[in-house]
């Protein structure tokens, strides 16, 4: 059982969700050797996006604030953790979060992608402690699936 890691998740007031169903022809996560590669995870909650649109500092209609986007990136990471668990069953087997790639649907004048993806990185550090320290890319894009503001994928090493 994944008692230590899942206990940390519970202490954070969070609960692992069901693994999101793929939106197309792919698997939510796959194992190769001693690594789990997750598909890009959206911030789905019970199958729905809690917010849509591009991330912007402008506050304009149809945009998402950087602070809200960071919260959504945290949810992406939680969904990715669930996908990892679906492959290795016991989250205490995680040796290290190797790489995080975060995609941020960005307004043309938004340059704060690293701060948005910090939502995911911070959660991974809180859940996995030292094993949560990772390499990372934070990429601005024009649009994401379902008009999601953020998407996060992980590479995880396990024993």
TrEMBL record:
Domain of life: Bacteria
Domain Endoribonuclease L-PSP/chorismate mutase-like, chain residue ranges per copy: 6-157
Designated name of the protein: RidA family protein
Record organism: Kocuria rhizophila
């Amino acid at each position: 059982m994944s008692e230590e890691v899942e206990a940390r998740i519970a202490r954070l007031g969070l609960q692992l969700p069901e693994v999101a169903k793929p939106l197309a022809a792919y698997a939510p996560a796959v194992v190769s050797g001693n690594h789990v590669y997750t598909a890009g995870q959206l911030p789905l909650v019970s199958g729905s996006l809690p917010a849509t649109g591009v991330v912007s500092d402008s506050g304009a209609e149809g945009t998402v604030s950087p602070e809200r986007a960071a919260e959504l990136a945290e949810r992406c990471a939680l969904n990715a953790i669930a996908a990892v668990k679906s492959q290795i069953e016991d989250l205490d087997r995680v040796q290290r979060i190797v790489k995080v790639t975060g995609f941020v649907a960005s307004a043309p004048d938004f340059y704060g992608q690293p701060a948005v993806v910090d939502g995911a990185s911070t959660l991974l550090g809180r859940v996995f402690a030292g094993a949560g320290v990772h390499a990372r890319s934070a990429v601005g894009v024009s649009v994401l699936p379902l008009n999601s503001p953020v998407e996060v994928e992980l590479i995880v090493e396990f024993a």
